Amino acid sequence: MSASLIVLGSANTDYTVVVDRHPQPGETLLGGDVVVATGGKGANQALAAARAGAMPVFLGAVGDDAGGRAMLDALGSGGVDVSSVARLTDAPTGVALITVSRDGENTIVVAPGANGRLDADAVVATITDLAGPGTVLLSQLEVPLTVVQAAALAVVGAGGRVVLNLSPARDIPDELLGLCDPLVVNESEARAVGAASFADVEGALAAARSLVTRCRSVIITLGGDGAVWCEAEASGHVAAPRVEVVDTTGAGDAFVGAVCAELADGAALADAVTAGVRSGAAAVQWRGAQPPAR
């Protein structure tokens, strides 16, 4: 039986500290207690997709250490299939160092560890076994680009669909960009692939329409203003509900995971974006990158 949703991406141990404000270069600040939790964009999005009703298969790598075991336990108990995750003895589980200011904004530094050692041939072999017509492959860029591109080609070859969250932003080959359905970006990531800057929803829609000439569909997230989407024949804007912002760390991943859960279930792009905006709005109301257990 083919998988409806495969998530290829990173898995990290997150170390988060709350500060009154973010430090300036060269400045030392005192913060609150360190909170240790499971994270990583790939793992976050897989768990968000599971919470949204999907049954995702996670493809990634962790170290043979306490962080890796905690990650597998957290994902498995959250409804994610972790049977294909690589467990490496020669690299530690990735680490993310996160500071969150009192207004909910964050800064993040990632040490990739095992994430940077994913084997493209092994990933392609797993996708070849699991993917079929209608399979959605979700990936981000906290794992090697060569692995992402090989996986995308494999899933499209099986009749599936590629969703790429261009985070962290970097140059990607036109061949990979052309497979994205959708490409998911925020404002700065949109600029990284050539979109013009914008200051409002109409500008974001114009940027999305310019990008869709280079890929199959596009979503641009707008934080508190929701998201815009565009495909060949249609485009639109989904406004976000007004909520109290506690921590923005997991909002983007919650959005993307919910979008892909809907797409894997056969939803139209507009409906998937609506679900993603709702999930992102919920995510800013808790601390940490992954949602609390229900």
TrEMBL record:
Known EC number: 2.7.1.15
Record: residues binding substrate: N12, T13, D14, G40, K41, G42, A43, N44, E142, D253
Presence of the UniProt keyword Cytoplasm in the record: yes
Superkingdom: Bacteria
Annotated Carbohydrate kinase PfkB domain residues: 4-292
Catalytic activity: D-ribose + ATP = D-ribose 5-phosphate + ADP + H(+)
Residues noted as binding ATP in the record, renumbered to the chain: N186, T221, L222, G223, G224, D225, G226, G252, D253
Record organism: Microcella alkaliphila
The organism's taxonomic lineage, starting at the top: Bacteria, Bacillati, Actinomycetota, Actinomycetes, Micrococcales
Chief place where the protein resides: cytoplasm
Textual note on the cofactor: Requires a divalent cation, most likely magnesium in vivo, as an electrophilic catalyst to aid phosphoryl group transfer. It is the chelate of the metal and the nucleotide that is the actual substrate.
GO molecular function, one term: ribokinase activity
Cofactor(s) named in the record: Mg(2+)
GO cellular component, one term: cytosol
Cellular localization per UniProt: Cytoplasm
UniProt activity-regulation remark: Activated by a monovalent cation that binds near, but not in, the active site. The most likely occupant of the site in vivo is potassium. Ion binding induces a conformational change that may alter substrate affinity.
Alphabetical keyword list: ATP-binding, Carbohydrate metabolism, Cytoplasm, Kinase, Magnesium, Metal-binding, Nucleotide-binding, Potassium, Transferase
Family: Belongs to the carbohydrate kinase PfkB family. Ribokinase subfamily.
GO biological process: D-ribose catabolic process
Subunit comment: Homodimer.
SUPFAM superfamilies in the record: Ribokinase-like
Pathway involvement of the protein, from the record: Carbohydrate metabolism; D-ribose degradation; D-ribose 5-phosphate from beta-D-ribopyranose: step 2/2
Record's protein name: Ribokinase
Active site, per annotation: D253 (proton acceptor)
Role played: Catalyzes the phosphorylation of ribose at O-5 in a reaction requiring ATP and magnesium. The resulting D-ribose-5-phosphate can then be used either for sythesis of nucleotides, histidine, and tryptophan, or as a component of the pentose phosphate pathway.
Binding residue positions for K(+): D247, T249, A283, W286, G288
Xref: InterPro entries: PfkB_dom (IPR011611), Ribo/fructo_kinase (IPR002139), Ribokinase (IPR011877), Ribokinase-like (IPR029056)
